[in-house]
Design goal:
Layout: E1 3-5, E2 14-18, E3 28-33, E4 39-41, E5 53-55, E6 66-72, E7 75-80, E8 85-88, E9 97-98, E10 100-103, E11 113-117, E12 123-127, E13 133-135, E14 147-149, E15 161-170, E16 189-190, H1 205-209, E17 226-228, E18 231-238, E19 259-263, E20 276-278, H2 298-301, E21 307-316, E22 324-329, E23 332-333, E24 335-340, E25 343-349, E26 355-358, E27 366-375, E28 388-390, E29 393-394, E30 398-403, E31 406-417, E32 423-434, E33 440-449, E34 455-466, E35 471-481, E36 494-502, E37 507-515, E38 520-523, E39 526-529, E40 532-533, E41 536-540, H3 554-566, E42 571-573, H4 581-590, E43 593-597, H5 615-629, E44 635-639, H6 648-660, E45 665-666, E46 677-680, H7 684-691, E47 699-704, H8 715-724, E48 729-734, H9 781-790, E49 793-799, E50 802-807, E51 817-825, E52 828-836, E53 845-849, E54 863-871, E55 883-890, E56 912-916, E57 920-924, E58 928-933, E59 938-944, E60 947-948, E61 957-959, E62 974-985, E63 991-1002, E64 1005-1016, E65 1021-1028, E66 1037-1044, E67 1050-1057, E68 1070-1077, E69 1094-1103, E70 1109-1123, H10 1127-1133, ...
Parallel strand pairs: 41-42, 41-48, 42-43, 43-44, 44-45, 46-47, 47-48
Antiparallel strand pairs: 1-15, 2-15, 3-6, 3-15, 4-5, 6-7, 7-8, 7-11, 8-10, 9-14, 11-12, 13-14, 16-25, 17-30, 18-19, 18-21, 20-28, 21-27, 22-26, 22-30, 23-29, 24-25, 24-27, 31-32, 32-35, 33-34, 33-36, 36-37, 38-39, 39-40, 49-50, 50-53, 51-52, 51-54, 54-55, 56-57, 57-58, 58-59, 59-60, 61-66, ...
Helix pairs in contact: 3-4, 5-6
Length: 1189
Amino acid sequence: MHKIKKILSGLFLLCTINVAAQTIDTNQAYEIHTLNGLAMDNQESVDAGSKIFISKRVPGKESQIWQFVPIEKDIYCIVSPLSQQAIDNGGNGAMERSVLQWSSDLNNANQQWKIEQHPNGYYIFTSVASGYNLGFPDAGLIGEPIFQLKPDTQQPNQQWMLVKSNVKVKNQPLKTSSNNDWENQHIFAINKEDGHATFIPFANLEEMKADPAYRHPWKRTHSSRYLLLNGNWKFNWAKQPEDRPKNFYRTNYDVSKWDEIPVPSNWEMLGYGTPIYTNITYPFRNNPPFIQGQRGYTVEKDEPNAVGSYRHEFTLPAEWTDKEIFIHFDGVYSAMYLWINGKKVGYSQGANNDARFNITDYVRSGKNQLAVEVYRWSDGSYLEDQDMFRLSGIHRDVYLVATPKVQLRDLHLTSMLSPRYDKAELHVKSKIKNHGKTISNASVRISLLDETGKQLKQFCTETGTVNTGKEVIINSKGSIRDPKLWSAETPYLYTVNVELLDDKGRVTEATTQQYGFRHIEIRNNKVYINGMLTLFKGANRHDIHPQYGKAVPVESMVEDILLFKQYNLNTIRTSHYPNDPKMYGLYDYYGLYVMDEADQECHGNMSLTDNPTWEAAFVDRAVRMVERDKNHPSVIFWSLGNESGGGCNIIAEYKAVRAIDDRPIHYEGMNDQADIDSRMYPSIESMIEQDKEPRNKPYFLCEYAHAMGNAVGNLEEYWDYIEYHSNRMIGGCIWDWVDQAINKPGETKDRVYFGGSFGDAPNDNDFCCNGLVTADRRVTPKLQEVKKVYQYISFRMNDKNSVELHNRYTAHNLTHFNLHYSLEKDGKIIKEEEFGLPDCKPTERRTIHVPLERYLTDDNAEYFVNFEVKLKHDCVWASAGHVVATEQFALNEKANQPIEITAATSGNEELKAYEEERRYVRFKNKACEISFDMSTGELIGLRYGEQEVLHRQQGPKFNWYRSINNDFRNWTNTTIKLQNFEWEIAEDKKSARVVTELEAVVGKTNIPHTIVYTIYGNGAIDIEAKFKTGADFNLPRLALQTSLNPTLDKLTWFGRGPIENYQDRKNAAYVGVYSSTVEDMREHYTRAQTMGGRCDTRWLTLTDNKGKGIKITAYGTFDFSALHYTDRELWQVKYGHNLENIRRNEVVLNLDCVQRGIGNASCGPGPRPKYEIKKDSEYKYAFRIEAIK
């Protein structure tokens, strides 16, 4: 924008002449002072969002220099030349809050300040957006932030002095365009074909039916009219446009010494340039449409705007000599020029929209040379500000197609279904274009086939005359009876074959589409698919692969879709851009509902949304998405983009999309313009309040349950309301599907990294790691919780001999499934059975007889029945036996044992007590030796026979610490003070009692607690702990932590498992008896954090290879974790792949009295109140430790 020029070799000399009688000089640098001479200072921050403070004036300090950029009379943007960012009121409206610095944007009212000069010399700065004045708290102390305050010009804390700096600022004229196409919002396509549906031309029907891609359009076609150009291309990388090989496209330019890289790929994944992860902040100066450096950013330090130059040769098939030839790019980040045989063909932007060019006049028979110049950043990058790694290059397929001169340019398939769905009418709109030199006649023949290949209908429509260079539209239709309907549950696809015939009836071109008949209706503020009320249970998904970046291979696409299906997700939001076109064939085939989202997000500068000069760019992205994907039955919603605010360009997008297609349109940033209401990350209370608003449209959570790290708490509570109590809710998509973490070139695949790991600036650290699956698609306990909550069958025990099943599918009868049940007594199966389910249509309920009561014979045992509903037959996404729904019921109310300890008398021997050095007390007999440090109150020895249980004298000790993304905590030094220590031995000498009264001090928080040990002659120890929380309590857990002998690394427990679980994420973890090793209790969080919790544990054993060790039995239940890591070290090590660096040999055992829920507060609400640890309360628990011999 405006550059600052230093006069004296980097020294800033200030002139302390008051400028009260002068107008503001926009070529002048200023200091802004309070009346007592303190300076406004951004404290050398170059980060957007940083606050601005009052500081002691320091001569020559760049962070205290400001420039006034004129907008209109008396209205200015106040910019720091150091950070190249402007003072912004933060969008706070009429509220007294601190201002911040943000990427400068002269069109942003939040950065516009009306400056009024008063006669006595001071200035008042008034926000155009809010009407509030720039000021500071009354005290005006050093280090206080600058605020916007309710206007009162008489108050000194709103009065400012301007002091000239001896620095000249040279204003550059404000640009509205550039000589570069890639810095001009008006230019996003040169010589590019209009958008169209995805289809491949074939020579004839016979060739097409024999093709691998016939009916499976994600597979690689062998069409004689198709030539794939993927492979190794010659490549040159330059860090900025000035360094690129400008003439590389010439046919005589030697590229023999250039590197080769695979296409498709992202060049950063191959070691060229820097991957940059940022959520909102643009990775360049926010000055649209220009790409400029920003101080401290990667673009300023190393890579102003990298350019990739690609060269490739291809041989044109001989039989294409009389054809029209097109080159097709499925996706390029972010702008590209194309040359063929040294001649410039065109230009394209829109990184995730396809681009097609007619190259008929540029190619020749035999070998041809292809040259592509790709710019990392362009004005289009302002609309590609999604929360993701910013990667570059040709990241999707490149291929050629050949068509006859009179070609089938586009197809649009729609249908009409009768009210009873017993008749379907297929409508086919064909666009026929004549590229030839003579007028032609043509006709279109449509064939409709079922999934077996049987032809059901054929109809033919003539085009009439097609003039040279013109396009005509042919509308054809045909109907069938009793159509099979497409839904996510029953994705039945018909094949629509289209043949183009010349005036003599000869086939000149053939193509095919997979099509599903389905009906979308909004009724009573809900969405109905094929007449059935449908809930959308989904997740957001970015295109990302740890090794290949955005060049996602088909195998990974299929893996994602199979996981969606197998874990009960039925909806995908293509956040925040159209996916690779192959994905939509997969969505259709496997059955997923799709919210197809335009490649449009200007989160870092939402003013573009209401800037008419950007309208065409906005509309182009939405229209190309719709034109490409319009024939896919899986697409239920169009989404106009993401997090871009509202404005005229959204309205224009809506109108353009609606003119093409009638599917519901979504856009969270401007609900009044959309067909459905949408929100992000509401609390349950807020969600309910919004659901009850009297708005005549459905309500959708486009993002919720932020799954960052160890997360997805209280998901059940959201869906209990959505599914059973809401007025107009239709579901939601969790944020998000997969951790956006990537490998570094040359490192092993198991090492994945996030923002900041590459020296990238700006970056948002690990905020990209929010996946229900890890980067390498490992299933997490979060996803297993989702599977349980999202399941489509609910269970209710009527009595101890029958269970009621509620079929919440929209298309499946329960006859598709088997029911398996198992009855467990204290975790051991004593009865199980499996059988087919009876007729039960969608929405119906059936009671199933399960004779259980006769087995419930032991009043001292716990009985649980587990139900599993399984697929009866194989399907495309899972094998027979795959479990689709589960439930567990407790069949008896077994009273928990009381906190008062029951004596362990069996086999007791007398204990002897010894005090040593006035510090230690030991209780000893042949069975055991148990030792305490009387100076600390700690249990420091627990020996059974020859086996020492404790590691390095680390017995139970208060632990408060955990740190997860949802509840980030830095370690605070903790001291535990012994208040009182008492011990006594019973008169019969068969037991002893030790009482320790302690107080833990964590920062300013005190936690008084008492631990009472009752020791028995057989070596058993009963431990009772009580904790008190005060009014200032804000810690995440109350626990005792112990380090155990490294040999005790095998564990079995009776409690919830086998997966990791927490109090607000345990629906998928059933009570049972489970076994593991300590090593296998770890999880694979990309950002290392607290992990491995297990809830509601009755007992736990830890043993060595010989089966010797200890058993810990709860009086009631406890939660626990057993790992080779401490929570503190997990957080400090940062990367999950570095756990071996902190692995301990010993077992770190945490026994939780209570732990705060995990919630979703990394971006959203924290735990529900019932999962919080209450202030001013007492918590207690008890357990017994005894030897396993």
